[in-house]
Amino acid sequence: MSNVIYLDHAATTPLDPEVLAAMMPYLTDKFGSASTLYSLGREARDAVEQARVSVAQLIGASPEEIYFTSGGTESDNWAVFGVAAANAKKGKHIITSKIEHHAILEPCHWLEKQGYSVTYLPVDSNGFVDPEDVRKNITNETVLVTIMHANNEIGTIEPIEEIGKIAREKGVHFHVDTVQTVGHIPVDVNSLHCDSLAISAHKLYGPKGIGAMYIRKGARVERYMRGGGQENNRRAGTHNVAGIVGLGKAAELAAARMAEEAQKLTRLRDMLIEGIEARIENAKLNGDRIRRLPNNVNFSFEAVEGESMILMLDMNGICVSSGSACTSGSLDPSHVLMALGLKHEQAHGSLRMTLGKDNTEADVERVLEVLPSIVQRLREMSPLYQR
Ligand code: PLP
């Protein structure tokens, strides 16, 4: 990456060289299919099973509860469609939040078209779902509660343990989108009281296009992909052996590094937040100051466009985003920022910077050197800015 300062780790992370090294044999000599009986295949199968153990260990699950998928989107889709299908006789009501990733929201919208009713819970101005709202909205018809662990745009960490207890008490399947948290903050399926969760390798220094779904033993979830009998007949398709090995290695490395990394990133995050607040007036931090991901910084700058800031930072070799990567191609303001109660202009003037393991204090200092003058120049050009 040479001179680039990469601050978009919530969108994707670089592949860790140790992960690449672990994957390489399965992209070259060890190319066998994990479903075959000869030794080349057995070797691949052993590697897949070893990865399953590593992923399970990272989240306090048992290996039989881990299913490999193509990533976070597939796992989230599987949870919504699979739980709805398996519990259709019980009812057709789903509870989620207004700030979920589209990987949850879009399947919910689709089910609404098929006659399901979906409750989209509001959040407060820091992005928190109120667990009592979950309790109040559960009915005899409710088959699924799905709430994200931490939000990808603003980094707010939801009170998942409390929500999980409520769902468990009421006997409703609880899915958690942990795409932004697994490998970064502790995730334990028993403390979260969840029945399923979604994992994506490329958010924890693993490869893109591979992920996993945890499904608690006994949970009623319809199979997702039909075909060969892979993944205990629940998710068919020839295994992406190299990808799975990469996810396993990334999980192993994350388990070993998490505590130290979270501490380092929290320090850099707070340095960046405080530095921006000290240097730029009319800058509003989005998301909760305390219960937030160690690597997330999200600000709205009055009277400037997020896109213009991105381009000007890019000219200075700094990669950031505004809103989430998936929606940044659209002109609609971020649904997450709107749910916090921000005005359209504030949502459009947002900038997300997400730190990663290779960022340094010097990177933060460079942003603090460049960003204030970019904001000032854009404000000078803006008819909206009142000085
Ligand atoms: N859920 C959240 C919270 C995410 O941030 C993302 C990716 O940005 C996804 C789901 C989708 O994951 P993937 O890119 O692996 O499909």
Describe, in plain words, how this protein is organized in 3D.
- This protein is α/β, with parallel strands linked by helices and 387 residues long.
- The chain folds into two domains: 129 residues, Alpha-Beta Complex (Aspartate Aminotransferase, domain 1); 237 residues, 3-Layer(aba) Sandwich (Aspartate Aminotransferase, domain 2), CATH 3.40.640.10.
- Helices cover 42% and strands 14% of the residues.
- The chain is built from 13 helices and twelve strands.
- The strands form three sheets. The chain has a seven-stranded mixed beta sheet, with helices on both faces.
- Helix 1 runs antiparallel to helix 9, helix 2 runs parallel beside helix 9 and helix 10 packs across helix 13.
- The radius of gyration is 21 Å and the shape is globular.
- About 1% of the residues have low confidence.
- The structure holds pyridoxal-5'-phosphate.
- The site of pyridoxal-5'-phosphate has 13 residues, from helix 3.
Blueprint (SSEs and pairs):
Elements: E1 5-6, H1 17-27, H2 39-59, E2 66-69, H3 72-86, E3 93-97, H4 102-113, E4 117-121, H5 131-137, E5 142-148, H6 160-169, E6 173-177, H7 189-192, E7 196-200, E8 211-215, H8 230-233, H9 241-279, E9 283-285, E10 296-301, H10 306-315, E11 318-319, H11 335-339, H12 344-348, E12 350-354, H13 361-381
Parallel strand pairs: 1-11, 3-4, 3-5, 5-6, 6-7
Antiparallel strand pairs: 2-8, 7-8, 9-10, 10-12
Helix pairs in contact: 1-9, 2-9, 3-4, 5-6, 9-13, 10-13
The structure holds pyridoxal-5'-phosphate.
Pyridoxal-5'-phosphate binds at residues 71-73, 76, 101, 103, 148, 152, 177, 179-180, 200, 211.
